[in-house]
Design goal:
Length: about 100
């Protein structure tokens, strides 16, 4: 089944909800910044992830953004600063 790449970032106002969202995201992607994950998912997996996150957040206080990345868009990743290099299981992108 075809998988797509997503960049997911969030701003959660409550500490408890923040930890829950982070645990959910760890099941679906790779953390690249404190509240930013890269995910490679099928459309069904994306729907499950999104629904699971929606059940946790407070839509009046929290924000979550999902960016679907095409092959061309996800390749020129530039990273500055500390942190380990990560790479999604498939593809040829660089996160420094």
């Amino acid at each position: 089944m075809k998988q797509n790449y997503y960049l997911v970032c969030y701003d959660i106002a409550d500490e408890k909800r923040l930890r829950k969202v982070a645990r959910i995201m760890e099941d679906f992607g790779i953390r690249v910044l404190y509240s930013v994950f890269e995910c490679r998912l099928t459309p069904e997996e994306f729907a499950v992830m999104r629904q699971t996150v929606e059940e946790v957040i407070d839509a009046l206080e929290d924000r979550v953004r999902y960016y679907r990345l095409c092959e061309t868009c996800r390749r020129p990743v530039v990273h500055l600063g500390y942190g380990k290099h990560t790479r999604l299981p498939e593809g040829d992108h660089l996160i420094l």
